[in-house]
Amino acid sequence: MNRVLIIFLIIGFYSCGEKQKSEKKSESVGIEKAVSELKDFELVQDFEKNKAEFETNTIDLFGHSSEGGELTIFHDKKFDYVVYDFWLYGELGRLNYTYWTEKNGKLNFKLVKQLEYNYNKPFYQEGFKTDSTISYLSYSDSKMKLFDINKTEITESELIEKSKSELESFFSDLTKGIEIKK
Q1: Could you give the angle at the alpha carbon of 54 between the alpha carbons of 43 and 102, nearest 5°?
Q2: What is the DSSP string of 23-40?
Q3: Is 128 helix (H, G, I), strand (E, B) or coil?
Q4: Which H or E run includes 161?
Q5: How many CB atoms lie within 10 A of CB 116?
C-alpha cells in the first residue's frame, strides 16, 4: 500500500512540474508576440511599464540650445524597439521629443511624441508661467497619423506633413556626428 501511494505521489509531482514548464513556454511566446505587435500608444504604455528593464546611454547635446540638452537612448534585447529621448533646454522653454524606432538597424520610426514647454518669460525671473503642448506622430500604418494631447486624430494634411518634416529634420540634425550603435 505504501509503495502504491509513493508511486502516485511521484507521478503527481512530475505531472505538475511538466504542466508548469508548458505554461511558462506559452506565456513567454505570448509576451514576445504582444511586444512585436505594439503600435502607437501601446508603445508608450509598454515603455513606461518596462522602462527600468532598458539599458541606457546618455549623450550631452552641447550647442543645440542656450541651456544645453541631452539624448538618452533606451535599448534592450527583449524589446523590438529602441527609444531616443531628446531634451533641449532654453531660457523661454524646453523641448522633449521621444522617438520609438524599430530595432532593425535602419532607424525606422514607429511613433514620435513631441512635448514642448513654453515660458511667458525667462525661467530665472520670478513668476514665470509654463504652457505645454503634446502631439504624437504615428508611422504605424501606411498612412501617417498625427494626434493631439487627448489622442484625437488631427487630419489636416499640411500640419501632418509639417510635423513629419520638422521631427525628422530635428532627429537627423541632432544625431549628426553621433555614432548610434544598434
Answers
A1: 45
A2: HHHHHHHHHHHHHHT--T
A3: coil
A4: helix 157-175
A5: 15
